Amino acid sequence: MALMGVQLVVSLLAACVMQRMAPHLSFARWLLCSGSLFRFKHPSEEQLYALSGKQAPKPNRRDRRQNGPVESKPLTVPKDIELHLEATPVRVLDALVLRFFLEYQWLVDFAVYAMGVYLFTEGYYCAVDATKEVNIGAIWCVLTILFCLKTLYTLMSHYFRSEEGGRALCLPGLWLPVLLVAMLVLVVREDYLEFGLEPGFASLFDNLESFAKHQGYMWSVPITKLTVKLALAAVCAFIGALLAFPGLRLAQTHLDAVQLNDGRPVIKILLHISFLSPVLVLMMWVKPIARDFLANAPIGKTTITLMPSSTFSSVRLWTVVALCLLRLSLTRFHLQAYLNMSQKWVEQMRREAGRIAAIDIQRKVTRVFCYLAVVTLQYLAPVLLLLFSTLALKSLGDFSWGLVPEVPGVTPVEAGFPAVAPLPAVEAGFPAVEGEGEEGGADMEDEVAAAVTQLLGSLSALRSVLSPVFCRGLFAFFTWWVAACQLISSLFGVYFHQYLIGN
Protein backbone atom coordinates (compact mmCIF):
# COMPACT_ATOMS: atom_id res chain seq x y z
CA MET A 1 0.00 0.00 0.00
CA ALA A 2 2.91 2.29 0.67
CA LEU A 3 4.17 1.65 -2.82
CA MET A 4 0.92 2.09 -4.73
CA GLY A 5 -0.94 4.54 -2.53
CA VAL A 6 -4.26 4.31 -0.76
CA GLN A 7 -6.32 5.56 -3.71
CA LEU A 8 -4.90 3.03 -6.15
CA VAL A 9 -5.40 0.17 -3.70
CA VAL A 10 -9.04 1.14 -3.15
CA SER A 11 -9.52 1.50 -6.91
CA LEU A 12 -8.15 -1.98 -7.59
CA LEU A 13 -10.24 -3.38 -4.75
CA ALA A 14 -13.40 -1.78 -6.18
CA ALA A 15 -12.68 -3.24 -9.62
CA CYS A 16 -12.16 -6.70 -8.11
CA VAL A 17 -15.34 -6.50 -6.05
CA MET A 18 -17.33 -5.31 -9.07
CA GLN A 19 -16.13 -8.26 -11.13
CA ARG A 20 -16.80 -10.81 -8.38
CA MET A 21 -20.15 -9.48 -7.17
CA ALA A 22 -21.76 -8.69 -10.54
CA PRO A 23 -23.36 -12.16 -10.95
CA HIS A 24 -24.71 -12.09 -7.37
CA LEU A 25 -25.41 -8.48 -6.44
CA SER A 26 -26.24 -5.91 -9.11
CA PHE A 27 -27.87 -2.52 -8.68
CA ALA A 28 -28.91 -2.60 -12.35
CA ARG A 29 -30.85 -5.85 -11.89
CA TRP A 30 -32.45 -4.51 -8.72
CA LEU A 31 -33.62 -1.39 -10.56
CA LEU A 32 -35.53 -3.40 -13.15
CA CYS A 33 -36.32 -6.66 -11.36
CA SER A 34 -37.23 -5.71 -7.80
CA GLY A 35 -40.95 -6.19 -8.49
CA SER A 36 -41.93 -2.52 -8.75
CA LEU A 37 -42.12 -2.55 -12.56
CA PHE A 38 -44.93 -4.41 -14.32
CA ARG A 39 -44.87 -5.64 -17.88
CA PHE A 40 -47.80 -6.88 -19.95
CA LYS A 41 -47.99 -10.39 -21.36
CA HIS A 42 -49.06 -10.89 -24.93
CA PRO A 43 -52.35 -12.78 -25.38
CA SER A 44 -52.20 -16.37 -26.51
CA GLU A 45 -54.01 -17.64 -29.60
CA GLU A 46 -56.50 -19.49 -27.39
CA GLN A 47 -57.43 -16.21 -25.67
CA LEU A 48 -57.79 -14.43 -28.99
CA TYR A 49 -59.95 -17.26 -30.35
CA ALA A 50 -62.20 -16.99 -27.30
CA LEU A 51 -62.47 -13.20 -27.54
CA SER A 52 -63.32 -13.37 -31.24
CA GLY A 53 -66.09 -15.97 -30.63
CA LYS A 54 -64.32 -18.76 -32.47
CA GLN A 55 -63.21 -22.18 -31.32
CA ALA A 56 -59.57 -23.08 -31.58
CA PRO A 57 -59.06 -25.76 -34.26
CA LYS A 58 -57.91 -29.15 -33.02
CA PRO A 59 -55.13 -30.88 -34.94
CA ASN A 60 -56.33 -33.95 -36.91
CA ARG A 61 -53.69 -36.64 -36.78
CA ARG A 62 -55.34 -38.69 -39.58
CA ASP A 63 -55.23 -35.79 -42.04
CA ARG A 64 -51.66 -35.06 -41.02
CA ARG A 65 -50.63 -38.66 -41.79
CA GLN A 66 -52.42 -38.82 -45.14
CA ASN A 67 -51.78 -35.34 -46.54
CA GLY A 68 -48.70 -34.32 -44.58
CA PRO A 69 -48.54 -31.16 -42.46
CA VAL A 70 -51.51 -28.89 -43.13
CA GLU A 71 -50.81 -25.18 -43.29
CA SER A 72 -53.31 -23.31 -41.13
CA LYS A 73 -54.43 -19.83 -42.06
CA PRO A 74 -53.16 -17.06 -39.80
CA LEU A 75 -55.68 -16.04 -37.19
CA THR A 76 -57.21 -12.60 -37.61
CA VAL A 77 -59.45 -10.94 -35.05
CA PRO A 78 -61.51 -7.75 -35.06
CA LYS A 79 -59.65 -4.76 -33.71
CA ASP A 80 -62.50 -3.80 -31.39
CA ILE A 81 -62.38 -6.99 -29.29
CA GLU A 82 -62.48 -6.69 -25.50
CA LEU A 83 -58.78 -7.38 -25.04
CA HIS A 84 -57.18 -6.71 -21.67
CA LEU A 85 -53.52 -7.52 -21.15
CA GLU A 86 -52.32 -9.33 -18.07
CA ALA A 87 -49.77 -7.44 -15.97
CA THR A 88 -46.93 -9.25 -14.21
CA PRO A 89 -43.84 -8.03 -12.32
CA VAL A 90 -40.55 -7.95 -14.20
CA ARG A 91 -38.27 -10.72 -12.94
CA VAL A 92 -34.62 -11.52 -13.48
CA LEU A 93 -35.30 -14.39 -15.87
CA ASP A 94 -37.47 -12.06 -17.95
CA ALA A 95 -34.81 -9.34 -18.05
CA LEU A 96 -31.99 -11.65 -19.16
CA VAL A 97 -33.51 -11.93 -22.65
CA LEU A 98 -33.77 -8.17 -23.14
CA ARG A 99 -31.73 -6.51 -25.85
CA PHE A 100 -28.65 -4.70 -24.53
CA PHE A 101 -29.31 -5.95 -21.01
CA LEU A 102 -25.66 -6.86 -20.46
CA GLU A 103 -24.53 -3.44 -21.66
CA TYR A 104 -27.09 -1.84 -19.35
CA GLN A 105 -25.98 -3.89 -16.36
CA TRP A 106 -22.31 -3.14 -16.98
CA LEU A 107 -22.79 0.61 -17.34
CA VAL A 108 -25.05 1.06 -14.32
CA ASP A 109 -22.96 -1.13 -12.04
CA PHE A 110 -19.76 0.59 -13.15
CA ALA A 111 -21.35 3.97 -12.44
CA VAL A 112 -22.33 2.81 -8.94
CA TYR A 113 -18.81 1.61 -8.13
CA ALA A 114 -17.34 4.74 -9.68
CA MET A 115 -19.50 6.82 -7.37
CA GLY A 116 -18.27 4.76 -4.42
CA VAL A 117 -14.63 5.29 -5.37
CA TYR A 118 -15.28 8.99 -5.90
CA LEU A 119 -16.90 9.41 -2.49
CA PHE A 120 -13.99 7.62 -0.84
CA THR A 121 -11.53 9.83 -2.71
CA GLU A 122 -13.34 12.97 -1.60
CA GLY A 123 -13.29 11.81 2.01
CA TYR A 124 -9.62 10.89 1.67
CA TYR A 125 -8.77 14.35 0.35
CA CYS A 126 -10.63 15.96 3.26
CA ALA A 127 -8.82 13.85 5.84
CA VAL A 128 -5.32 13.83 4.32
CA ASP A 129 -3.38 16.47 2.46
CA ALA A 130 -3.08 14.60 -0.83
CA THR A 131 -2.87 17.49 -3.27
CA LYS A 132 0.27 16.03 -4.86
CA GLU A 133 -1.39 12.69 -5.56
CA VAL A 134 -3.30 11.80 -8.69
CA ASN A 135 -7.07 11.87 -8.10
CA ILE A 136 -8.18 8.31 -8.87
CA GLY A 137 -11.84 9.20 -8.33
CA ALA A 138 -11.67 11.74 -11.16
CA ILE A 139 -10.25 9.04 -13.45
CA TRP A 140 -13.24 6.82 -12.67
CA CYS A 141 -15.53 9.74 -13.51
CA VAL A 142 -13.84 10.26 -16.88
CA LEU A 143 -14.09 6.53 -17.63
CA THR A 144 -17.81 6.60 -16.81
CA ILE A 145 -18.27 9.50 -19.23
CA LEU A 146 -16.47 7.59 -21.98
CA PHE A 147 -18.51 4.44 -21.34
CA CYS A 148 -21.75 6.46 -21.51
CA LEU A 149 -20.74 7.94 -24.86
CA LYS A 150 -19.78 4.49 -26.16
CA THR A 151 -23.13 3.04 -25.06
CA LEU A 152 -25.09 5.86 -26.69
CA TYR A 153 -23.11 5.37 -29.90
CA THR A 154 -23.92 1.63 -29.84
CA LEU A 155 -27.61 2.37 -29.37
CA MET A 156 -27.60 4.88 -32.21
CA SER A 157 -25.85 2.38 -34.50
CA HIS A 158 -28.41 -0.27 -33.60
CA TYR A 159 -31.23 2.15 -34.34
CA PHE A 160 -29.85 2.73 -37.83
CA ARG A 161 -29.73 -1.02 -38.47
CA SER A 162 -33.17 -1.79 -37.03
CA GLU A 163 -36.45 -2.04 -38.91
CA GLU A 164 -37.35 1.50 -37.84
CA GLY A 165 -34.06 2.85 -39.11
CA GLY A 166 -35.85 4.82 -41.80
CA ARG A 167 -36.76 7.42 -39.23
CA ALA A 168 -33.05 7.86 -38.48
CA LEU A 169 -32.29 9.05 -42.00
CA CYS A 170 -33.16 12.58 -40.95
CA LEU A 171 -30.42 12.54 -38.31
CA PRO A 172 -27.52 13.49 -40.63
CA GLY A 173 -29.45 16.61 -41.57
CA LEU A 174 -29.43 17.66 -37.92
CA TRP A 175 -25.66 17.42 -37.51
CA LEU A 176 -24.94 20.60 -39.45
CA PRO A 177 -27.33 22.81 -37.39
CA VAL A 178 -25.92 21.34 -34.17
CA LEU A 179 -22.40 22.00 -35.43
CA LEU A 180 -23.29 25.61 -36.20
CA VAL A 181 -24.87 26.07 -32.78
CA ALA A 182 -21.76 24.66 -31.11
CA MET A 183 -19.53 27.02 -33.08
CA LEU A 184 -21.71 29.98 -32.10
CA VAL A 185 -21.51 28.99 -28.43
CA LEU A 186 -17.73 28.69 -28.60
CA VAL A 187 -17.32 32.25 -29.88
CA VAL A 188 -19.49 33.79 -27.16
CA ARG A 189 -17.41 35.97 -24.84
CA GLU A 190 -16.69 35.01 -21.26
CA ASP A 191 -18.76 38.00 -20.13
CA TYR A 192 -21.89 36.03 -21.05
CA LEU A 193 -20.95 32.33 -20.80
CA GLU A 194 -18.30 31.88 -18.14
CA PHE A 195 -16.88 28.50 -19.06
CA GLY A 196 -13.26 29.58 -18.79
CA LEU A 197 -12.28 28.14 -22.15
CA GLU A 198 -9.99 31.00 -23.17
CA PRO A 199 -7.70 30.84 -20.10
CA GLY A 200 -7.94 27.05 -20.31
CA PHE A 201 -6.70 26.97 -23.89
CA ALA A 202 -3.90 29.40 -23.05
CA SER A 203 -2.79 27.18 -20.16
CA LEU A 204 -2.95 24.06 -22.35
CA PHE A 205 -0.81 25.56 -25.12
CA ASP A 206 1.79 26.86 -22.65
CA ASN A 207 2.01 23.51 -20.89
CA LEU A 208 2.28 21.59 -24.16
CA GLU A 209 5.07 23.84 -25.36
CA SER A 210 6.94 23.47 -22.07
CA PHE A 211 6.44 19.72 -22.10
CA ALA A 212 7.75 19.46 -25.68
CA LYS A 213 10.84 21.47 -24.79
CA HIS A 214 11.44 19.28 -21.76
CA GLN A 215 11.35 16.22 -24.01
CA GLY A 216 14.00 17.74 -26.26
CA TYR A 217 11.82 19.14 -29.05
CA MET A 218 12.89 22.73 -29.62
CA TRP A 219 9.75 23.84 -31.42
CA SER A 220 6.41 25.26 -30.46
CA VAL A 221 3.31 23.13 -30.59
CA PRO A 222 1.66 23.72 -33.99
CA ILE A 223 -1.87 24.00 -32.65
CA THR A 224 -4.01 27.07 -32.92
CA LYS A 225 -7.09 28.00 -30.96
CA LEU A 226 -9.18 27.94 -34.12
CA THR A 227 -8.20 24.33 -34.84
CA VAL A 228 -8.96 23.27 -31.29
CA LYS A 229 -12.33 25.04 -31.30
CA LEU A 230 -13.27 23.45 -34.63
CA ALA A 231 -12.38 20.03 -33.27
CA LEU A 232 -14.36 20.76 -30.10
CA ALA A 233 -17.34 21.88 -32.18
CA ALA A 234 -17.20 18.61 -34.16
CA VAL A 235 -17.20 16.65 -30.90
CA CYS A 236 -20.16 18.71 -29.72
CA ALA A 237 -22.06 17.89 -32.91
CA PHE A 238 -21.34 14.20 -32.35
CA ILE A 239 -22.60 14.40 -28.76
CA GLY A 240 -25.71 16.22 -29.95
CA ALA A 241 -26.39 13.39 -32.39
CA LEU A 242 -25.96 10.81 -29.62
CA LEU A 243 -28.45 12.63 -27.38
CA ALA A 244 -31.09 13.13 -30.10
CA PHE A 245 -32.89 9.80 -29.72
CA PRO A 246 -32.71 9.77 -25.88
CA GLY A 247 -34.29 13.23 -25.89
CA LEU A 248 -37.16 12.07 -28.08
CA ARG A 249 -37.68 9.05 -25.87
CA LEU A 250 -37.57 11.17 -22.71
CA ALA A 251 -40.28 13.43 -24.08
CA GLN A 252 -42.55 10.47 -24.79
CA THR A 253 -42.04 8.83 -21.39
CA HIS A 254 -42.47 12.19 -19.65
CA LEU A 255 -45.84 12.81 -21.27
CA ASP A 256 -46.98 9.28 -20.47
CA ALA A 257 -45.69 9.47 -16.89
CA VAL A 258 -47.54 12.73 -16.26
CA GLN A 259 -50.73 11.19 -17.63
CA LEU A 260 -50.20 8.01 -15.60
CA ASN A 261 -49.78 9.97 -12.35
CA ASP A 262 -52.67 12.34 -12.97
CA GLY A 263 -54.05 11.85 -9.46
CA ARG A 264 -50.69 12.42 -7.72
CA PRO A 265 -49.92 16.16 -7.83
CA VAL A 266 -46.59 15.90 -5.97
CA ILE A 267 -45.23 13.35 -8.45
CA LYS A 268 -46.46 15.48 -11.36
CA ILE A 269 -44.64 18.53 -10.00
CA LEU A 270 -41.45 16.53 -9.56
CA LEU A 271 -41.76 15.16 -13.09
CA HIS A 272 -42.11 18.66 -14.54
CA ILE A 273 -39.17 19.96 -12.46
CA SER A 274 -37.04 17.05 -13.60
CA PHE A 275 -37.98 17.58 -17.24
CA LEU A 276 -37.14 21.30 -17.12
CA SER A 277 -34.04 20.89 -14.94
CA PRO A 278 -31.61 21.42 -17.87
CA VAL A 279 -32.94 24.98 -18.13
CA LEU A 280 -31.62 25.74 -14.64
CA VAL A 281 -28.31 24.06 -15.47
CA LEU A 282 -27.92 26.28 -18.53
CA MET A 283 -28.75 29.42 -16.57
CA MET A 284 -26.11 28.65 -13.95
CA TRP A 285 -23.33 29.38 -16.46
CA VAL A 286 -24.93 32.51 -17.96
CA LYS A 287 -22.99 35.19 -16.11
CA PRO A 288 -25.50 38.10 -16.30
CA ILE A 289 -28.26 35.85 -14.93
CA ALA A 290 -26.40 33.67 -12.44
CA ARG A 291 -23.21 35.16 -11.03
CA ASP A 292 -23.97 38.85 -11.60
CA PHE A 293 -27.46 38.51 -10.18
CA LEU A 294 -27.09 35.89 -7.43
CA ALA A 295 -23.53 36.45 -6.27
CA ASN A 296 -23.32 40.20 -6.95
CA ALA A 297 -26.84 41.58 -6.72
CA PRO A 298 -27.22 45.07 -8.26
CA ILE A 299 -29.18 47.45 -6.04
CA GLY A 300 -29.50 50.82 -7.68
CA LYS A 301 -26.05 52.06 -8.62
CA THR A 302 -24.30 49.86 -6.08
CA THR A 303 -23.58 46.13 -6.05
CA ILE A 304 -23.89 43.96 -2.96
CA THR A 305 -21.90 40.75 -2.78
CA LEU A 306 -24.29 38.10 -1.53
CA MET A 307 -21.81 35.23 -1.69
CA PRO A 308 -18.13 34.86 -2.58
CA SER A 309 -17.08 33.51 -5.94
CA SER A 310 -15.97 30.18 -4.47
CA THR A 311 -19.30 29.76 -2.65
CA PHE A 312 -21.21 30.42 -5.85
CA SER A 313 -19.15 27.77 -7.65
CA SER A 314 -19.98 25.29 -4.89
CA VAL A 315 -23.68 26.15 -5.07
CA ARG A 316 -23.60 25.63 -8.82
CA LEU A 317 -22.07 22.18 -8.43
CA TRP A 318 -24.57 21.19 -5.74
CA THR A 319 -27.45 22.39 -7.91
CA VAL A 320 -26.46 20.23 -10.88
CA VAL A 321 -25.88 17.18 -8.67
CA ALA A 322 -29.25 17.64 -6.94
CA LEU A 323 -31.09 17.90 -10.26
CA CYS A 324 -29.37 14.76 -11.53
CA LEU A 325 -30.33 12.87 -8.37
CA LEU A 326 -33.93 14.06 -8.80
CA ARG A 327 -34.07 12.68 -12.31
CA LEU A 328 -32.50 9.40 -11.19
CA SER A 329 -35.09 9.05 -8.42
CA LEU A 330 -37.89 9.29 -11.03
CA THR A 331 -36.49 6.54 -13.23
CA ARG A 332 -39.13 3.95 -12.42
CA PHE A 333 -42.00 6.33 -13.17
CA HIS A 334 -40.66 6.82 -16.69
CA LEU A 335 -39.96 3.12 -17.20
CA GLN A 336 -43.44 2.12 -16.05
CA ALA A 337 -44.91 4.73 -18.37
CA TYR A 338 -42.97 3.12 -21.21
CA LEU A 339 -44.17 -0.39 -20.30
CA ASN A 340 -47.75 0.87 -20.29
CA MET A 341 -47.40 1.57 -24.00
CA SER A 342 -48.60 -2.00 -24.63
CA GLN A 343 -51.95 -1.36 -22.96
CA LYS A 344 -52.11 2.09 -24.53
CA TRP A 345 -51.61 0.60 -27.99
CA VAL A 346 -54.34 -1.98 -27.35
CA GLU A 347 -56.79 0.74 -26.31
CA GLN A 348 -55.95 2.71 -29.45
CA MET A 349 -56.40 -0.42 -31.59
CA ARG A 350 -59.87 -1.03 -30.14
CA ARG A 351 -60.99 2.37 -31.45
CA GLU A 352 -60.13 1.38 -35.01
CA ALA A 353 -62.13 -0.61 -37.53
CA GLY A 354 -61.11 -3.71 -39.42
CA ARG A 355 -59.23 -6.87 -38.53
CA ILE A 356 -55.68 -7.55 -37.43
CA ALA A 357 -53.55 -10.67 -37.36
CA ALA A 358 -53.04 -12.27 -33.97
CA ILE A 359 -49.30 -12.51 -34.56
CA ASP A 360 -49.17 -8.73 -35.04
CA ILE A 361 -50.81 -8.18 -31.65
CA GLN A 362 -48.41 -10.55 -29.95
CA ARG A 363 -45.40 -9.04 -31.69
CA LYS A 364 -46.40 -5.48 -30.82
CA VAL A 365 -46.96 -6.26 -27.13
CA THR A 366 -43.77 -8.29 -26.80
CA ARG A 367 -41.66 -5.74 -28.60
CA VAL A 368 -42.37 -3.07 -25.98
CA PHE A 369 -40.88 -5.22 -23.24
CA CYS A 370 -37.93 -6.40 -25.36
CA TYR A 371 -36.68 -2.80 -25.65
CA LEU A 372 -36.93 -2.05 -21.92
CA ALA A 373 -33.14 -2.13 -21.42
CA VAL A 374 -32.64 0.14 -24.44
CA VAL A 375 -35.12 2.68 -23.10
CA THR A 376 -33.50 2.49 -19.65
CA LEU A 377 -30.10 3.23 -21.15
CA GLN A 378 -31.54 6.12 -23.14
CA TYR A 379 -32.91 7.55 -19.91
CA LEU A 380 -29.94 6.91 -17.59
CA ALA A 381 -26.93 7.51 -19.86
CA PRO A 382 -27.56 11.27 -20.38
CA VAL A 383 -28.14 11.72 -16.63
CA LEU A 384 -24.91 9.87 -15.82
CA LEU A 385 -23.11 12.00 -18.40
CA LEU A 386 -24.26 15.17 -16.70
CA LEU A 387 -23.62 13.89 -13.18
CA PHE A 388 -20.12 12.54 -13.69
CA SER A 389 -19.04 15.49 -15.83
CA THR A 390 -20.01 17.70 -12.86
CA LEU A 391 -18.03 15.49 -10.47
CA ALA A 392 -15.03 15.58 -12.81
CA LEU A 393 -15.38 19.36 -13.04
CA LYS A 394 -15.18 19.61 -9.27
CA SER A 395 -12.13 17.35 -8.89
CA LEU A 396 -10.09 18.19 -11.98
CA GLY A 397 -11.06 21.87 -11.85
CA ASP A 398 -9.89 22.14 -8.24
CA PHE A 399 -13.25 23.34 -6.93
CA SER A 400 -14.70 22.75 -3.48
CA TRP A 401 -18.04 21.46 -2.21
CA GLY A 402 -18.06 24.27 0.35
CA LEU A 403 -18.33 21.87 3.29
CA VAL A 404 -15.04 22.98 4.83
CA PRO A 405 -13.96 26.58 5.48
CA GLU A 406 -10.72 26.17 3.54
CA VAL A 407 -11.32 26.56 -0.17
CA PRO A 408 -8.47 25.16 -2.26
CA GLY A 409 -7.07 27.42 -4.89
CA VAL A 410 -6.02 26.57 -8.38
CA THR A 411 -3.01 24.28 -8.34
CA PRO A 412 -0.14 26.04 -10.10
CA VAL A 413 1.50 24.32 -13.01
CA GLU A 414 5.20 23.97 -12.52
CA ALA A 415 7.49 24.52 -15.44
CA GLY A 416 10.14 22.00 -16.27
CA PHE A 417 8.10 18.82 -15.72
CA PRO A 418 10.56 16.89 -13.56
CA ALA A 419 10.78 13.19 -14.21
CA VAL A 420 9.36 10.84 -11.64
CA ALA A 421 12.08 9.08 -9.70
CA PRO A 422 11.76 5.29 -9.49
CA LEU A 423 10.44 4.04 -6.20
CA PRO A 424 12.65 1.72 -4.16
CA ALA A 425 11.02 -1.67 -4.42
CA VAL A 426 13.11 -3.28 -1.69
CA GLU A 427 12.09 -0.71 0.90
CA ALA A 428 8.41 -1.22 0.13
CA GLY A 429 8.47 -4.45 2.07
CA PHE A 430 6.80 -6.90 -0.31
CA PRO A 431 7.08 -10.41 1.15
CA ALA A 432 8.55 -13.11 -0.99
CA VAL A 433 6.19 -15.76 -2.33
CA GLU A 434 6.41 -19.06 -0.50
CA GLY A 435 8.50 -21.58 -2.37
CA GLU A 436 10.62 -18.96 -4.14
CA GLY A 437 14.06 -17.79 -3.30
CA GLU A 438 15.14 -14.31 -2.39
CA GLU A 439 16.14 -13.65 -5.99
CA GLY A 440 12.68 -14.55 -7.33
CA GLY A 441 11.00 -12.37 -4.72
CA ALA A 442 13.26 -9.45 -5.53
CA ASP A 443 12.49 -9.81 -9.25
CA MET A 444 8.77 -9.74 -8.58
CA GLU A 445 9.20 -6.67 -6.40
CA ASP A 446 11.18 -4.95 -9.13
CA GLU A 447 8.49 -5.71 -11.73
CA VAL A 448 5.68 -4.40 -9.51
CA ALA A 449 7.66 -1.30 -8.61
CA ALA A 450 8.49 -0.62 -12.26
CA ALA A 451 4.84 -1.00 -13.34
CA VAL A 452 3.56 1.27 -10.57
CA THR A 453 6.29 3.83 -11.20
CA GLN A 454 5.50 3.93 -14.92
CA LEU A 455 1.77 4.33 -14.21
CA LEU A 456 2.30 7.12 -11.69
CA GLY A 457 4.80 8.83 -13.97
CA SER A 458 2.36 8.83 -16.88
CA LEU A 459 -0.44 10.18 -14.71
CA SER A 460 1.82 12.87 -13.28
CA ALA A 461 2.92 13.98 -16.75
CA LEU A 462 -0.70 14.09 -17.91
CA ARG A 463 -1.65 16.08 -14.82
CA SER A 464 1.12 18.57 -15.55
CA VAL A 465 -0.17 19.20 -19.07
CA LEU A 466 -3.90 19.21 -18.26
CA SER A 467 -3.91 21.90 -15.62
CA PRO A 468 -6.94 22.67 -13.41
CA VAL A 469 -7.50 25.85 -15.40
CA PHE A 470 -7.93 23.86 -18.60
CA CYS A 471 -10.08 21.18 -16.92
CA ARG A 472 -12.36 23.89 -15.53
CA GLY A 473 -13.09 25.29 -18.96
CA LEU A 474 -13.39 21.92 -20.70
CA PHE A 475 -15.70 20.17 -18.24
CA ALA A 476 -17.77 23.29 -17.56
CA PHE A 477 -18.43 23.57 -21.28
CA PHE A 478 -19.06 19.81 -21.57
CA THR A 479 -21.56 19.89 -18.70
CA TRP A 480 -23.36 22.88 -20.17
CA TRP A 481 -23.47 21.37 -23.64
CA VAL A 482 -24.87 18.03 -22.45
CA ALA A 483 -27.65 19.88 -20.62
CA ALA A 484 -28.32 22.01 -23.72
CA CYS A 485 -28.60 18.95 -25.97
CA GLN A 486 -30.96 17.27 -23.51
CA LEU A 487 -33.17 20.34 -23.35
CA ILE A 488 -33.33 20.93 -27.11
CA SER A 489 -33.98 17.29 -28.02
CA SER A 490 -36.60 16.77 -25.29
CA LEU A 491 -38.50 19.96 -26.14
CA PHE A 492 -38.50 18.98 -29.80
CA GLY A 493 -39.71 15.55 -28.71
CA VAL A 494 -42.69 17.10 -26.88
CA TYR A 495 -43.59 19.06 -30.00
CA PHE A 496 -43.12 15.95 -32.14
CA HIS A 497 -45.33 13.68 -30.02
CA GLN A 498 -47.97 16.29 -29.22
CA TYR A 499 -48.47 18.03 -32.55
CA LEU A 500 -46.80 16.09 -35.36
CA ILE A 501 -48.01 12.56 -34.59
CA GLY A 502 -50.70 13.49 -32.06
CA ASN A 503 -49.57 10.96 -29.47
UniProtKB/TrEMBL annotation:
Keywords: Glycoprotein, Membrane, Signal, Transmembrane, Transmembrane helix. GO terms for cellular component: membrane. Residues 55-74 are annotated as: Disordered. The chain crosses the membrane at residues 137-156, 168-188, 226-245, 266-286, 368-393, 474-496. Pfam families: Tmemb_161AB. Residues 1-28 form the signal peptide. It is found in: Membrane. It comes from the Eukaryota. It is a multi-pass membrane protein. InterPro entries: Transmembrane_161A/B. Belongs to the TMEM161 family. This is Transmembrane protein 161A. It comes from Synaphobranchus kaupii (Kaup's arrowtooth eel). The lineage of its organism: Eukaryota, Metazoa, Chordata, Craniata, Vertebrata.
